[in-house]
Write a structure and sequence with these properties.
Length: 327
Protein backbone atom coordinates (compact mmCIF):
# COMPACT_ATOMS: atom_id res chain seq x y z
CA UNK A 1 0.00 0.00 0.00
CA UNK A 2 1.36 3.39 -0.98
CA UNK A 3 2.44 5.56 1.91
CA UNK A 4 0.87 8.97 2.36
CA UNK A 5 2.51 12.13 3.61
CA UNK A 6 0.62 14.00 6.28
CA UNK A 7 0.28 17.80 6.16
CA UNK A 8 2.46 18.02 9.27
CA UNK A 9 5.24 16.07 7.53
CA UNK A 10 5.00 18.34 4.48
CA UNK A 11 5.30 21.38 6.75
CA UNK A 12 8.38 19.92 8.43
CA UNK A 13 9.99 19.20 5.06
CA UNK A 14 9.24 22.72 3.83
CA UNK A 15 10.69 24.26 6.99
CA UNK A 16 13.78 22.08 6.74
CA UNK A 17 14.30 23.15 3.12
CA UNK A 18 13.90 26.79 4.05
CA UNK A 19 16.36 26.36 6.91
CA UNK A 20 18.91 24.78 4.56
CA UNK A 21 18.40 27.61 2.07
CA UNK A 22 18.90 30.24 4.78
CA UNK A 23 22.09 28.54 5.98
CA UNK A 24 23.38 28.36 2.40
CA UNK A 25 22.68 32.07 1.88
CA UNK A 26 24.32 32.90 5.21
CA UNK A 27 27.37 30.81 4.32
CA UNK A 28 27.61 32.52 0.95
CA UNK A 29 27.29 35.97 2.54
CA UNK A 30 29.98 35.17 5.09
CA UNK A 31 32.35 33.86 2.40
CA UNK A 32 31.72 36.93 0.24
CA UNK A 33 32.27 39.29 3.18
CA UNK A 34 35.51 37.56 4.18
CA UNK A 35 36.75 37.58 0.58
CA UNK A 36 36.10 41.29 0.14
CA UNK A 37 37.57 42.05 3.57
CA UNK A 38 40.76 40.16 2.68
CA UNK A 39 41.00 41.85 -0.74
CA UNK A 40 40.43 45.26 0.84
CA UNK A 41 43.12 44.60 3.46
CA UNK A 42 45.59 43.52 0.76
CA UNK A 43 44.75 46.58 -1.37
CA UNK A 44 45.31 48.90 1.58
CA UNK A 45 48.57 47.13 2.43
CA UNK A 46 49.94 47.53 -1.10
CA UNK A 47 48.73 51.14 -1.29
CA UNK A 48 50.60 52.15 1.87
CA UNK A 49 53.92 52.97 0.13
CA UNK A 50 52.15 54.97 -2.59
CA UNK A 51 50.14 56.95 -0.04
CA UNK A 52 53.27 57.68 2.01
CA UNK A 53 55.12 58.76 -1.15
CA UNK A 54 52.39 61.15 -2.30
CA UNK A 55 51.78 62.58 1.17
CA UNK A 56 55.50 63.01 1.83
CA UNK A 57 55.93 64.89 -1.44
CA UNK A 58 53.70 67.60 0.05
CA UNK A 59 55.58 67.97 3.35
CA UNK A 60 58.75 69.82 4.39
CA UNK A 61 61.84 67.65 4.83
CA UNK A 62 62.01 67.89 8.62
CA UNK A 63 58.37 66.87 8.95
CA UNK A 64 58.85 63.87 6.65
CA UNK A 65 61.53 62.34 8.88
CA UNK A 66 59.62 63.04 12.09
CA UNK A 67 56.28 61.72 10.79
CA UNK A 68 57.78 58.42 9.63
CA UNK A 69 57.72 57.21 13.24
CA UNK A 70 53.92 57.44 13.54
CA UNK A 71 50.61 57.28 11.72
CA UNK A 72 51.22 60.86 10.67
CA UNK A 73 53.22 59.48 7.73
CA UNK A 74 49.85 58.83 6.04
CA UNK A 75 48.29 62.17 7.00
CA UNK A 76 48.98 65.35 4.99
CA UNK A 77 49.89 68.14 7.40
CA UNK A 78 51.32 71.57 6.66
CA UNK A 79 51.12 70.75 2.96
CA UNK A 80 53.32 72.64 0.53
CA UNK A 81 54.14 72.41 -3.15
CA UNK A 82 57.70 73.66 -2.68
CA UNK A 83 59.05 70.15 -3.23
CA UNK A 84 57.75 70.32 -6.79
CA UNK A 85 58.53 73.93 -7.59
CA UNK A 86 59.98 76.87 -5.67
CA UNK A 87 60.88 79.58 -8.21
CA UNK A 88 61.94 82.12 -5.59
CA UNK A 89 63.86 79.71 -3.36
CA UNK A 90 67.00 81.87 -3.49
CA UNK A 91 65.20 84.98 -2.31
CA UNK A 92 65.57 85.80 1.42
CA UNK A 93 62.39 85.09 3.31
CA UNK A 94 60.89 82.91 0.56
CA UNK A 95 57.68 81.23 1.76
CA UNK A 96 58.76 77.82 0.47
CA UNK A 97 62.44 78.15 1.39
CA UNK A 98 62.99 80.57 4.26
CA UNK A 99 66.75 79.96 4.45
CA UNK A 100 67.20 80.50 0.72
CA UNK A 101 68.79 77.09 0.07
CA UNK A 102 66.06 74.52 -0.73
CA UNK A 103 65.04 74.50 -4.38
CA UNK A 104 62.17 72.47 -5.78
CA UNK A 105 62.33 69.55 -8.17
CA UNK A 106 61.76 71.65 -11.30
CA UNK A 107 64.52 74.06 -10.27
CA UNK A 108 67.09 71.37 -9.47
CA UNK A 109 66.57 69.26 -12.61
CA UNK A 110 65.07 69.64 -16.12
CA UNK A 111 62.27 67.28 -15.17
CA UNK A 112 60.08 68.24 -18.12
CA UNK A 113 62.76 67.17 -20.59
CA UNK A 114 63.43 63.91 -18.77
CA UNK A 115 59.71 63.18 -18.58
CA UNK A 116 59.33 63.83 -22.31
CA UNK A 117 62.25 61.47 -23.02
CA UNK A 118 60.58 58.67 -21.07
CA UNK A 119 57.17 59.22 -22.69
CA UNK A 120 58.66 59.38 -26.19
CA UNK A 121 60.86 56.30 -25.77
CA UNK A 122 58.20 54.20 -24.06
CA UNK A 123 55.33 55.08 -26.39
CA UNK A 124 57.54 54.53 -29.44
CA UNK A 125 58.51 51.05 -28.25
CA UNK A 126 54.91 50.17 -27.38
CA UNK A 127 53.38 51.52 -30.60
CA UNK A 128 55.95 49.97 -32.93
CA UNK A 129 55.98 46.76 -30.89
CA UNK A 130 52.21 46.30 -31.13
CA UNK A 131 52.43 46.44 -34.92
CA UNK A 132 55.56 44.33 -35.41
CA UNK A 133 54.84 41.68 -32.79
CA UNK A 134 51.17 41.27 -33.68
CA UNK A 135 51.97 40.86 -37.39
CA UNK A 136 54.69 38.33 -36.56
CA UNK A 137 52.28 36.39 -34.36
CA UNK A 138 49.59 36.58 -37.04
CA UNK A 139 51.98 35.06 -39.55
CA UNK A 140 52.88 32.27 -37.13
CA UNK A 141 49.33 31.54 -36.00
CA UNK A 142 47.18 32.03 -39.10
CA UNK A 143 49.41 31.45 -42.14
CA UNK A 144 51.10 28.29 -43.41
CA UNK A 145 54.72 28.50 -44.56
CA UNK A 146 57.89 26.43 -44.35
CA UNK A 147 59.88 26.76 -41.12
CA UNK A 148 57.03 28.26 -39.12
CA UNK A 149 57.14 25.79 -36.22
CA UNK A 150 60.94 25.82 -35.71
CA UNK A 151 60.86 29.62 -35.68
CA UNK A 152 58.04 29.60 -33.12
CA UNK A 153 60.07 27.21 -30.95
CA UNK A 154 63.07 29.52 -31.17
CA UNK A 155 60.98 32.55 -30.20
CA UNK A 156 59.58 30.73 -27.16
CA UNK A 157 63.10 29.70 -26.17
CA UNK A 158 64.22 33.34 -26.30
CA UNK A 159 61.77 34.20 -23.53
CA UNK A 160 63.86 32.43 -20.88
CA UNK A 161 67.04 34.37 -21.72
CA UNK A 162 67.42 37.35 -19.33
CA UNK A 163 68.27 40.67 -20.91
CA UNK A 164 71.26 41.09 -18.59
CA UNK A 165 72.90 38.13 -20.31
CA UNK A 166 72.89 39.83 -23.73
CA UNK A 167 73.17 43.50 -22.70
CA UNK A 168 76.95 43.76 -23.13
CA UNK A 169 77.11 41.85 -26.49
CA UNK A 170 74.22 43.97 -27.77
CA UNK A 171 75.97 47.15 -26.72
CA UNK A 172 79.22 46.12 -28.46
CA UNK A 173 77.29 45.21 -31.58
CA UNK A 174 75.38 48.49 -31.74
CA UNK A 175 78.49 50.54 -31.01
CA UNK A 176 79.78 49.94 -34.54
CA UNK A 177 76.40 49.45 -36.20
CA UNK A 178 75.84 51.76 -39.19
CA UNK A 179 73.24 54.52 -39.02
CA UNK A 180 71.88 57.02 -41.53
CA UNK A 181 73.98 59.79 -39.98
CA UNK A 182 77.45 59.98 -38.52
CA UNK A 183 76.04 60.14 -34.98
CA UNK A 184 76.02 56.36 -34.68
CA UNK A 185 73.78 54.44 -32.30
CA UNK A 186 75.12 55.17 -28.83
CA UNK A 187 73.89 58.20 -26.90
CA UNK A 188 70.79 58.55 -29.09
CA UNK A 189 67.05 57.98 -28.90
CA UNK A 190 67.05 55.15 -31.42
CA UNK A 191 69.45 52.99 -29.40
CA UNK A 192 66.85 53.05 -26.63
CA UNK A 193 63.94 52.22 -28.95
CA UNK A 194 64.68 49.89 -31.86
CA UNK A 195 66.41 47.02 -30.00
CA UNK A 196 63.19 46.47 -28.01
CA UNK A 197 60.53 46.75 -30.71
CA UNK A 198 60.52 43.01 -31.44
CA UNK A 199 59.80 41.12 -28.23
CA UNK A 200 59.55 37.33 -27.91
CA UNK A 201 57.09 37.38 -25.00
CA UNK A 202 54.76 39.79 -26.79
CA UNK A 203 54.81 37.60 -29.91
CA UNK A 204 53.94 34.59 -27.77
CA UNK A 205 51.01 36.40 -26.11
CA UNK A 206 49.64 37.48 -29.49
CA UNK A 207 50.15 33.98 -30.87
CA UNK A 208 48.24 32.38 -28.00
CA UNK A 209 45.33 34.72 -28.56
CA UNK A 210 45.28 34.48 -32.36
CA UNK A 211 45.15 30.69 -32.45
CA UNK A 212 41.96 30.84 -30.39
CA UNK A 213 40.10 32.85 -33.04
CA UNK A 214 38.00 30.51 -35.25
CA UNK A 215 39.50 30.00 -38.70
CA UNK A 216 36.05 30.18 -40.24
CA UNK A 217 36.45 33.96 -40.28
CA UNK A 218 39.58 33.63 -42.42
CA UNK A 219 37.93 31.19 -44.82
CA UNK A 220 34.87 33.39 -45.25
CA UNK A 221 37.07 36.43 -45.90
CA UNK A 222 39.14 34.55 -48.48
CA UNK A 223 35.96 33.55 -50.29
CA UNK A 224 35.14 37.25 -50.53
CA UNK A 225 38.57 37.91 -52.03
CA UNK A 226 40.40 39.25 -48.98
CA UNK A 227 44.17 38.87 -48.80
CA UNK A 228 46.14 38.14 -45.57
CA UNK A 229 46.66 41.86 -44.84
CA UNK A 230 42.95 42.58 -45.19
CA UNK A 231 42.12 39.68 -42.87
CA UNK A 232 44.63 40.96 -40.33
CA UNK A 233 43.38 44.55 -40.33
CA UNK A 234 39.65 43.95 -40.79
CA UNK A 235 39.06 40.75 -38.80
CA UNK A 236 41.89 39.92 -36.44
CA UNK A 237 42.55 43.41 -35.07
CA UNK A 238 38.93 44.21 -34.09
CA UNK A 239 38.70 40.87 -32.24
CA UNK A 240 42.02 41.27 -30.45
CA UNK A 241 41.63 44.47 -28.43
CA UNK A 242 42.03 42.67 -25.07
CA UNK A 243 45.41 41.15 -25.96
CA UNK A 244 46.57 44.44 -27.49
CA UNK A 245 45.75 46.19 -24.21
CA UNK A 246 47.52 43.48 -22.21
CA UNK A 247 50.69 43.68 -24.29
CA UNK A 248 50.59 47.48 -24.20
CA UNK A 249 50.36 47.54 -20.40
CA UNK A 250 53.13 44.98 -19.90
CA UNK A 251 55.47 46.66 -22.35
CA UNK A 252 54.71 50.10 -20.95
CA UNK A 253 55.51 48.97 -17.40
CA UNK A 254 58.70 47.24 -18.53
CA UNK A 255 60.18 50.13 -20.49
CA UNK A 256 58.88 52.96 -18.32
CA UNK A 257 61.06 51.64 -15.51
CA UNK A 258 64.00 50.54 -17.68
CA UNK A 259 67.29 51.48 -16.07
CA UNK A 260 70.17 49.20 -17.11
CA UNK A 261 70.10 49.69 -20.89
CA UNK A 262 69.64 53.50 -20.89
CA UNK A 263 72.45 53.75 -18.35
CA UNK A 264 74.78 51.69 -20.55
CA UNK A 265 73.84 53.00 -24.00
CA UNK A 266 73.76 56.69 -23.07
CA UNK A 267 76.76 56.79 -20.74
CA UNK A 268 78.26 59.83 -22.49
CA UNK A 269 74.99 61.72 -22.92
CA UNK A 270 73.36 64.26 -20.69
CA UNK A 271 69.81 64.38 -19.43
CA UNK A 272 68.63 65.64 -22.84
CA UNK A 273 67.96 62.05 -23.99
CA UNK A 274 67.96 60.04 -20.76
CA UNK A 275 64.75 58.64 -19.19
CA UNK A 276 63.32 58.98 -15.69
CA UNK A 277 64.98 55.98 -13.94
CA UNK A 278 68.50 57.15 -14.85
CA UNK A 279 67.66 60.76 -14.04
CA UNK A 280 66.21 59.75 -10.69
CA UNK A 281 69.41 57.95 -9.72
CA UNK A 282 71.40 61.06 -10.65
CA UNK A 283 68.94 63.22 -8.74
CA UNK A 284 69.13 60.96 -5.68
CA UNK A 285 72.90 61.41 -5.56
CA UNK A 286 72.79 65.17 -5.71
CA UNK A 287 73.65 67.22 -2.64
CA UNK A 288 71.96 68.31 -0.54
CA UNK A 289 69.69 65.25 -0.44
CA UNK A 290 66.14 66.51 0.04
CA UNK A 291 63.62 63.77 0.70
CA UNK A 292 60.67 65.96 -0.20
CA UNK A 293 62.06 66.55 -3.70
CA UNK A 294 62.85 62.85 -4.07
CA UNK A 295 59.29 61.94 -3.09
CA UNK A 296 57.98 64.51 -5.58
CA UNK A 297 60.14 62.96 -8.31
CA UNK A 298 58.90 59.46 -7.44
CA UNK A 299 55.27 60.63 -7.41
CA UNK A 300 55.48 62.19 -10.86
CA UNK A 301 57.19 59.06 -12.18
CA UNK A 302 54.52 56.76 -10.71
CA UNK A 303 51.32 58.60 -11.63
CA UNK A 304 51.54 57.89 -15.42
CA UNK A 305 51.87 54.16 -14.74
CA UNK A 306 48.71 54.16 -12.63
CA UNK A 307 46.84 56.17 -15.26
CA UNK A 308 47.83 53.80 -18.07
CA UNK A 309 46.67 50.79 -16.07
CA UNK A 310 43.35 52.43 -15.14
CA UNK A 311 42.76 53.30 -18.80
CA UNK A 312 43.35 49.74 -20.05
CA UNK A 313 42.39 47.64 -17.04
CA UNK A 314 39.04 46.58 -18.54
CA UNK A 315 40.74 45.07 -21.58
CA UNK A 316 43.55 43.66 -19.45
CA UNK A 317 41.12 41.79 -17.18
CA UNK A 318 39.09 40.64 -20.16
CA UNK A 319 42.21 39.21 -21.81
CA UNK A 320 43.20 37.35 -18.65
CA UNK A 321 39.67 35.99 -18.24
CA UNK A 322 39.55 34.86 -21.88
CA UNK A 323 42.91 33.12 -21.50
CA UNK A 324 41.64 31.37 -18.40
CA UNK A 325 38.51 30.10 -20.17
CA UNK A 326 40.55 28.82 -23.13
CA UNK A 327 43.29 27.31 -20.98
Amino acid sequence: MASTTTPRALTDIRQEAQSLERRARLRKSVNTTLTYALMTALAIFFLFPIVVMVVSSLKPDDQITSDMRSINAFIPRNTTTSNYSCPDYNQPGSACSPDGTNAGLFERMPFGRVFFNTVFITTSIVALGLIVNSMAAYSLARLRWFGRRPLLTLIIALIIIPFEAIAVPLLLQLRDFPWITDAGWLNTYHVQIFPFVADAFSIFLFYQFFIGIPRDFDEAARVDGANPFSIYFRIILPLSRPVFATVAILQFLTHWGSYLWPLMSTASAGLEIRPLPVAMQIFFGQAPRQWGDIMAFATLATVPVLLVFLMFQKWFIRSVAASGVKG
